[in-house]
């Protein structure tokens, strides 16, 4: 693709990087075949190729984002399926992230949307605030259908209430900074990202991760000062807020790495893992760039770590058929496809993959709140495909997907909880529900 940025524009490192990405695109359109929004809407501007043209025009002109550009960029899930499909290696993720930050700086959204995005930014990345908000939302959940109107604001309010859990789990003791010692001879020492929304919605995931790793002889450190990975703000174009969150994590893990050493930073929410592994790029022009690159290199999905250290079950095969849902951030963002399925099979599960496994479930961070109609269509499509597998249970490696899909007829559980159970941990609640008579 030809571009026409001026020398002055190219002096901006973000523009220079976007220019490089744009010039990689050859207009082939293969990305349209695997784009969820193009699949649903059939509009070229709701495909990666169409968005690339819109972003190119916006950035080259150096002009404020228009309503048209914002509408089509907002509809992008950042599922990154297009990057898996693209034969030219177009790094669409970095391009659309730049576009979102540019939109945030140049476009004034309607006040209800500004208010909602502000609330999401102030609440979701902070576990204490999020827990309080969920308590209120849980109480209001039965009244979601009573929210009047067909406006986008009304749709978003209903979506938030529908996503609230029936009950909010109590805080887990493992959230506090501490060292969880290895059982037996220590084989490795790792940090763990405790996350933000996940530890509120499903503390059992972190508990299972730590139990399993320590039984495998791996010491797990919950570092003081870590928090949200920054992804939630990053994908809303809140550049400064996402960088502040990332800086705190980099400082926390580098203190630990420099003091007693770390063999890995374990991540059990794949959306967060994709962001952590991108810290080196995010901080490429910042003073922390070397430390950020170290954190990115240490970051590993839990399935990568379990594979590396030779996970082995201790219980007999459970006789359960599992539908493995490949989170977009895992299969497209991190290119991790084989490990989760191999581990589940090694643990004794029968693993089935739904049709259109490359298509997003519609969760995508805050997407199922900000774009509820499209997210709802993708959810229904995904649940139908999973239902056709004949499985009893959904396994996935990302809290957003579990929240999106878990409210259907089939229970959803994190992959690591199943692996922990088969290696001596407690039976996950979702397994008991899957086994219960219909």
Short description:
By secondary structure, the protein is an alpha/beta fold. The chain has helices at 7-10, 13-24, 36-41, 48-61, 67-74, 81-85, 92-106, 111-123, 127-140, 152-163, 197-201, 203-215, 231-234, 239-259, 270-276, 279-282, 289-298, 302-308, 328-333, 338-346, 367-370, 372-387, 399-405, 415-422, 429-435, and strands at 178-180, 188-192, 218-222, 264-267, 299-301, 321-324, 350-352, 393-396, 412-414. 53% of the residues lie in helices and 8% in strands.
Structural class: alpha/beta
Strand order of the largest sheet: 1-3-2-4-5
Rg is 21 Å
Cα distance spanning the termini: 56 Å
Low-pLDDT stretches are none
- Tell me the count of domains: 4
User: Could you give a short account of the major beta sheet?
Assistant: 5 strands, mixed
What's the total number of strands? 9
Strand content range:
5-15%
Provide an overview of this structure:
- There is one protein chain.
- This protein is α/β, with parallel strands linked by helices.
- The protein has helices spanning 7-10, 13-24, 36-41, 48-61, 67-74, 81-85, 92-106, 111-123, 127-140, 152-163, 197-201, 203-215, 231-234, 239-259, 270-276, 279-282, 289-298, 302-308, 328-333, 338-346, 367-370, 372-387, 399-405, 415-422, 429-435, and strands at residues 178-180, 188-192, 218-222, 264-267, 299-301, 321-324, 350-352, 393-396, 412-414.
- Strand 8, helix 23 (399-405) and strand 9 form a beta-alpha-beta unit.
- The protein is globular, with a radius of gyration of 21 Å.
- The termini are far apart.
């Amino acid at each position: 693709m030809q571009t026409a940025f001026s020398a002055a524009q190219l002096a901006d490192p973000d523009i220079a990087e976007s220019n490089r990405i744009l010039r990689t695109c050859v207009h082939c359109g293969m990305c349209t075949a695997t784009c969820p929004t193009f699949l649903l809407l059939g509009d070229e501007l709701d495909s990666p190729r169409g968005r690339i043209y819109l972003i190119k025009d916006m950035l080259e002109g150096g002009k404020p984002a228009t309503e048209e550009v914002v509408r089509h960029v907002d509809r992008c899930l950042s599922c990154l399926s297009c990057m898996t499909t693209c034969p030219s290696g177009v790094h669409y993720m970095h391009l659309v992230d730049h576009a979102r930050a540019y939109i945030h700086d140049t476009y004034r959204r309607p006040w209800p949307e500004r208010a909602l995005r502000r609330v999401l930014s102030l609440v979701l990345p902070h576990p204490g605030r999020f827990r309080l908000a969920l308590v209120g939302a849980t109480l209001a959940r039965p009244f979601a259908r009573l929210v009047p109107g067909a406006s986008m604001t009304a749709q978003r309010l209903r979506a938030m209430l529908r996503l609230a859990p029936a009950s909010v789990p109590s805080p887990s003791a493992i959230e506090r900074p501490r060292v969880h010692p290895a059982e037996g001879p220590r084989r490795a020492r790792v940090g763990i990202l405790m996350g933000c929304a996940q530890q509120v919605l499903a503390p059992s995931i972190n508990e299972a991760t730590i139990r399993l790793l320590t039984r495998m002889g791996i010491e797990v450190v919950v570092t003081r000062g870590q928090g949200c990975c920054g992804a939630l703000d990053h994908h809303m174009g809140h550049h400064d807020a996402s960088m502040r969150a990332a800086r705190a994590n980099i400082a926390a893990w580098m203190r630990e790495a420099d003091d007693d050493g770390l063999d890995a930073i374990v991540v059990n929410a794949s959306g967060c893992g994709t962001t952590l592994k991108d810290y080196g790029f995010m901080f490429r022009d910042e003073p922390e760039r070397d430390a950020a690159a170290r954190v990115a290199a240490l970051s590993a999905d839990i399935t990568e770590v379990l594979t590396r250290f030779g996970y082995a079950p201790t219980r007999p095969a459970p006789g359960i058929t599992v539908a493995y849902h490949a989170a977009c951030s895992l299969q497209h963002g991190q290119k991790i496809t084989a490990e989760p399925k191999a581990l589940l099979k090694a643990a004794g599960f029968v693993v089935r993959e739904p049709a259109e496994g490359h298509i997003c479930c519609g969760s995508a961070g805050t997407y199922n709140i900000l774009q509820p109609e499209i997210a709802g269509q993708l959810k229904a499509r995904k649940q139908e495909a999973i239902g056709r597998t004949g499985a009893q249970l959904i396994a996935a490696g990302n809290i957003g997907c579990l929240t999106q899909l878990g409210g259907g007829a089939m229970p959803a559980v994190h992959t690591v909880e199943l692996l922990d159970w088969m290696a001596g941990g407690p039976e996950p609640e979702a397994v008991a529900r899957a086994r219960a008579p219909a």
